Every structure is written in C-alpha cells, then in structure tokens.
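Why does residue order matter? Because the sequence determines the fold. Keep that principle in mind as you read this record.
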Amino acid sequence: MHPKPTAPTDPLDVETFANPVQRRRFVAAMNRITADREPGTPVRVYITTGPQMRKSSKWDAWLTRITESLPEGVEVLHYHKAFPGDRPYDWDAVAGDLDGLVILGRQKRPGSRVFLMGPVARLELRSLIARKPVLIYTHNLGLIPVIDCKSQVLTPEDAPRLKLVAPKRWQRDTMTLTAALNALTPAEPGQEERTDTTGHLAHPFVAPPQ
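Structure:
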C-alpha cells in the first residue's frame, strides 16, 4: 500500500514567525530598555493608523482598548494629539521623543489576521522598529510585537504599503509581549534600580521591512 499523503501544513498555524534567535535578541533588547529607564521619566507611545480609521465611529473604542492594553501611566499619542491644529506633519520631530509604537492596521476582512498599512505608517514603523518596542493591535488577539508577525511589502514602488500577518496560534503570555510591555512600563520615583544582566546589543532586532 502506498502511504497516505499528509495534509499540507498551514504556514500561518504558528505561535510566531520569528526564529528563536530573533526572539531572544528582542527580549534582551527590551530588558535593556527596562533597565536603563530613569525613574520618573515619561513613557510615550504613538498609535499610528490611517485617516479612514481615525474617522471611524469605532475610533474612540479602539483608542480606549489600546490604552487599556498598555501599562498604566503611559502617555498615548496619535495624529491629532501630536499634530494639533495647523501644525504640519513632521514625524522626525516627534519620533525622537517616543518610547514605542502601536499600529492600528486595517483588517483585510472581518476576523482576518492580515492587516494592511499605508506608506506613512510603514515609514513610521521603519524609523522605530530597530530601537523601540513596536506592536500591532489586533482586534481579536490584542497587542502583538511586530517581530512575531510576518511582513510583506506591497506595490506600488513609489509609495509601498505593508502587510502584516499575525501568527494563528499567538499566545498573550509569550516572552516577547511580556518584555515589550515591561519596556513600556514607567519607572516610579524611588523604585529600586534594576540590575541589567543582558549585555548591550547594537542591532537587537530583525531587519525592518524594506
């Protein structure tokens, strides 16, 4: 008898798309950020999303859910808060003061784990992903570090967009999410100094999407 053919493996049926080395380096880098944070310094996180999402009737609910998913005491910024009134959009002037980024991407379809980002959000991600915690907010699974997602650049080449795919078997208690949230937790005044045992990593993350 011929052996029964095996069913094809679902490439999305994974807990993470990152390999073990990438995850360990990410966690070590997050631990370094946590250890180096001075007590009493503010922690600012920017929520990036497209104009249509900000105009949606669900925007306030999304903003509330994301804020509640972040550590207590984090200052949450978004487009209208960072660039109020007639202030022109100048990402470079804002990015240097940010401690993290949360992406609110457009779902490919309801219930999908595929999220689409426009060219502006893609550039914002690229500017921070090699230095700060960058997470995507998924409506069903909550916050997921981008390092655990699969990324794909979409044409056109003059204004490329980005597709992020969340892992199908994502677990919220994963070490990457825990480390990222710790790196976004404000250090209280008078808090005992943390001991850093991770060592310095000059390039801790995977290469940002091209």
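The longest strand covers residues 44-48.
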